[in-house]
Batch of 2 targets.
Target 1
Amino acid sequence: MVKVAVIGSSSMDLVVTSAKRPEAGETVLGESFKTVPGGKGANQAVAAARLGAEVYMVGCVGNDHYGKEILKNFADNQVRINYVEPVTEMESGTAHIILAEGDNSIVVVKGANDAVTPAYVKHAKRAIEQADIVLIQQEIPEETVEYVANLCHELGVPLLLNPAPARPISENVIEKAAYITPNEHEAALLFAGISAGEALTKYPEKLFITEGKRGVRYFNGKSEVLIPSYAVEVVDTTGAGDTFNAALAVALAEGKTIEESLRFANRAASLSVMKFGAQGGMPLRKEVEDKME
Ligand code: ATP
Ligand code: RIB
């Protein structure tokens, strides 16, 4: 069983479904409202655990009702929470999601996820040094990503950076991360001034640009390759990227080749979009393997 440490956000997703997305200043009548666990860090931790990894979450929740539910959800999914602390001075992170017209719009209020500082992560050094791979995203402070990139580099533990949501990243982080997985919009921001193709060529077998239902693109050292995803009936794409990242991390940590790992990640992510909620469709290991056959 591979060990995965996730340094990231844990939130509650407040999800409204509606036939129409409101314009600025407009009110529309929605169809349903649900509260489900989310946050990119928590989603990736849960997805990796369902895929068979031993997962250590490093994060913060508020000392409130959502915080308690988030902790219970980790426990229900066998994610280790020795390094998840309730903080009193901030509320749990929330994501306010509208599902309309076949896509989502999300406003994230980071709340307690801002307490995942370098000083906080320092206490989780043991989980990081014992991990086969570390996963990080960008719903926590920028300096924490910088700190973890330096720490992983120093410890020789591979870091998979999912640079979402989009924000600029230092050259140091780009160099020290072992793998970087932006979607097309995030890639355009990270590598402004050069084309996606040039960026891929610059970072062979390190930069993987996800393209939604089309799959994922990378440069294998000789040519640019698109590994296609799988055609499925889509219910909710929220969390597809998180499932992809978790599955990629687990497969790479298990020693699968880059191409095998990307196929596994596409398969897991394509299954995740078939059910409602970021974590609702995240598959178990067996479900992915049955489909791979
Ligand atoms: P998210 O919607 O979670 O923010 P993202 O924008 O980070 O996702 P995408 O490029 O949209 O990332 O999707 C990540 C991966 O999920 C894709 O590379 C693909 O493997 C899978 N995927 C996403 N959408 C679909 C879909 N409609 N059908 C099949 N696979 C999908
Ligand atoms: O990647 C999906 C996640 O992004 C959602 O669960 C929501 O919490 C947002 O942060």
Target 2
Amino acid sequence: MTTEGLTTLIPAEKIAVRVAELGAEISRDLVGIVELTVVCVLKGAFIFAADLVRNLTVPCRIEFIRASSYGTHRSSSGRVMLDHHHDWHVEGKHVLLLEDILDTGLTVTRILEELRGHNPASLRVCALLDKPSARATPASAEYTGFTIPDVFVVGYGLDAAGRYRELPYVATLNA
Ligand code: 5GP
């Protein structure tokens, strides 16, 4: 489908099915834990996180971290900035890091390094999207929604210079 300069890559219905599957899989793997600390990486993962946590059956505490590397450009700046002027509350906790997309892998690597320094009981990554061909550093997620080619995508939380986050589907921008 092509709408106003966008081509749908993953329709909303397909995302909903996959997010429910991820929620069920994560809940199965973590059954019996007292509490899961979910860390949502802002801004891009906010919609994914909102939908995913409602598909989890384990008790959650939800935290947010802001990471940025893109600015208004469409390729990674290679420099990851984290806002971490807050308490992590992850010592001895089971932690699930929620990312919108694994691209170069630099952001997730930087955040994992930060989280590991706070001694969590366990640490897992769940990314809605994965672009394995774009890696600048080895990085992977325990749970992945969709593997996509190395194309710039928007929607379902992902932006282009602040636009398109509200779209219920994932799309590519037409040239
Ligand atoms: P990294 O390159 O560090 O793996 O990804 C950093 C961040 O860049 C992601 O969390 C995401 O916010 C942004 N990013 C990477 N690929 C894309 C893309 O195709 N579209 C959009 N809108 N953002 C992306």
